[in-house]
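Q: Joint fold for the lines below.
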Amino acid sequence: MTRIHALVFALCAALAGCGGQAPSFNGVDLTGADWGRGFSLQDPDGHTRTLADFRGKYVLLFFGFTHCPDVCPTALLRAQEMRKLLGADGAKVQVIFVTVDPERDTAALMREYTAAFDPSFLGLRADAEGTKRVASEFKVFYEKVPAGASYTVNHSALTYVFDAQGRLRLALQHTQTAEQFAADLRTLMKQSS
Amino acid sequence: MQRTLIASLFVLAATSALAQVTVKDPWVRATVPHQTATGAFMQLSSPADAKLVSASSPVAGVTELHEMKMEKDVMKMRPVPGIAIPAGKGAELKPGGYHVMLMNLKGQVKEGDTVPITLVVEGKDGKRETVEVKAAVRPLNAPAGGADHGGMHMKH
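A: Joint structure:
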């Protein structure tokens, strides 16, 4: 009996600060990952931005392109809804949209596109090489696919979440809702408060 | 006698079925300046099996039928030769599935505008006909669901 108690206690302590239950996330817990450590990309004003610039904020990072009719606007819309669901804490979240189609997604287009969802959202880009680099750092797959006279870009649709210390913590899936996103952000915020 | 009448009515219904392909709730996602592609979504229904085989619009240089699929967290989009409209069941073109892809846009597609789209529908007998659609332009950040879920568009 005491043994079981001790075991439960040890498990509990190991799992969390144990205010009751272990932290559980809707997304995939990436805490401790040795990849996705940072980025160096251009904002629409042409300034270089790195993950360190957003210390103190919870960063939501995902990849896409503006000529995407479906997944990308849905991801941006979900981020917008998630910020609303978080209420005042929404201001602690920085949403970053990185293009995998720098050829068509110019700085001006990135600015207009993200602003159509939320003026606080940031659209970042790089040249072809830089895009390759950041995609590989985040294990993001993307490929140009011809479509008619033009092309489309198949790409990973995960959303990464960094905590306020700039550590990669979670990957949320495209099938998850704004409510599930918000719940995970709340859990993260609670942990560090 | 009555039987023949019913039978001929069926034939009549079958031949005129194509004319009965109906389109509900067509909409196009607005674009920002310089954005040259967007998607159109709608619900198609038909009393007889039919297939949407192509679409065109004066606002786009190229119009294709596309399917979006998630494969292991990777979004894949590909042109499809047609979208089946099963009798009575219909087909829904919505975010997360099929859409009419409008590419090489000739200008910005603004919220509140109407985009004309011509659909080419094929019946089981291979006969084709066109259906004219006037799609409303919804904001870029319109939710994925139909109008029923688009809280922004509902007036209570």
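Q: Anything notable?
A: DSSP finds one helix and ten strands in chain B. Chain B has one domain: 22-140.
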